[in-house]
Amino acid sequence: NDVSAKVQETGFAASSWIESAANLEDHPHDQPNQTIYQLISSSKYTTKLAAAIEEYPDLVVLLNGTLANYTLFAPIDSAFDKIPKDAPKPSKEDIKKALLYHVSPEYYPAGKVLVTHTVPTALTVDTVGVGPQRLSTNIGIKGLTVNFYSRIIAINIFGTNGVIHGIDSLLVPPPKAAEIIAFLPGEFSTLELGLTKTGLLPVINDTSNHVGGTIFAPSNFAFQKLGPKINGFLFSSYGQKYLRALLEYHIVANQTLYSDAYYAAESVDQKDIPKGIFHIDLPTLLKGRSLAVDVARYGRLISIKVNAFATVAIEDGIAADGVIQVVESVIIPPKKIDRMEQHWQGEELTVEDLKERLEPFVEDENVEL
């Protein structure tokens, strides 16, 4: 059938995805006569996925239904073989959550996936804000992937109620942001050390005190750019209160800013970020200080700048309780000169200048989310 034929295609190199974007046909040549569920249940490549879904009659109804044009990111059988044999068996509830995480209630044929950075799923969680949990799509040396690791190996298998894309790895609902930072020491060991020393790690990990959030996470390289003197000061016992204030300036609670969607915790104002230029001021944990964020969006090309200086180098690290945006420079609070705020633009910074910028905030030792 269509699934069997499409699954045999290899993954796409990034260049071929981009070059073929204009030529992707996002509508079937012939009128489909099977639902998404019927397609996967009749394919020899998705027998394990079909068997898993059959355990949940409401999911069968969903994928057979016509309430929406769904998108299913369908793991092929070999994806299930990647589960370690000694892995503990998840609960039935957790398996259902994982299956829902493969389904979007919206229609995302390949051409739309290609120009989209995040995709809403059928999994709703109470820790991310007003809106569903999302997937991220990425183009790299593996071609087009979902959540950075699951490669899309077949596209545009159309059913009467949506579209299927085949993937080579299971999609696992993401852990919390603090756990992701801990999982990636090659990228975030300095940040994790700072969050631990200042007591902020358990604060951001406690989802009882915030709903969703955005962490503008400086990479190890971003800290290196500050130089040894400033790092030595910040990570000394005397500099710890300044380090806490600095890190608070990178953390936004209750507002989740993806590169192409925005959730607010206390509002139904979930919205897509429009094409073109989008500006938003996000209040941080640093008392009275917000980050000025500009998103420039043209199709798949997205640029995010913070305070007109710090560039987001890796977008949309999807977390259970928000999103991580990796910045290539540490974001320094502005200082006032003649009543005007002067933002740091990457010029050489001394320890005294850094202290001057952070001094007004170091007395508040126990900021809450």
Defining traits:
369 residues; 15 helices; disordered N terminus; alpha+beta; elongated; 7-stranded mixed β-sheet
How would you describe this structure to a colleague?
The chain is α+β, with helices and mostly antiparallel strands. The protein is built from 15 helices and 19 strands. It has a seven-stranded mixed beta sheet. Strands 9-8-17-16-15-14-13 form a seven-stranded mixed beta sheet. Strands 10-11-12 form a three-stranded antiparallel beta sheet, with no helix packed on it. A hairpin with a 3-residue loop joins β10 and β11. α9 packs across α10 and α10 crosses α14. The chain starts with a helix and ends in an 11-residue tail after the last helix.
Which spans have pLDDT < 50 for at least 5 consecutive residues? 1-23
**Biggest sheet, spatial arrangement of strands:** 2-1-7-6-5-4-3
Helix content bin: 25-40%
* Overall pLDDT: 86
- Rg (CA only): 22 Å
Spatial gap, N to C terminus: 52 Å
Oligomeric state as shown: single chain
Q: What count of helical segments does DSSP give?
A: 15
Largest sheet: 7 strands, mixed
Structural class: alpha+beta
Number of strands: 19
Globally, the shape reads elongated
Kindly estimate the percentage of residues that lie in beta strands according to DSSP.
Answer: 25-35%
Brief description of this entry?
The protein has 369 residues and is α+β, with helices and mostly antiparallel strands. Helices cover 29% and strands 27% of the residues.
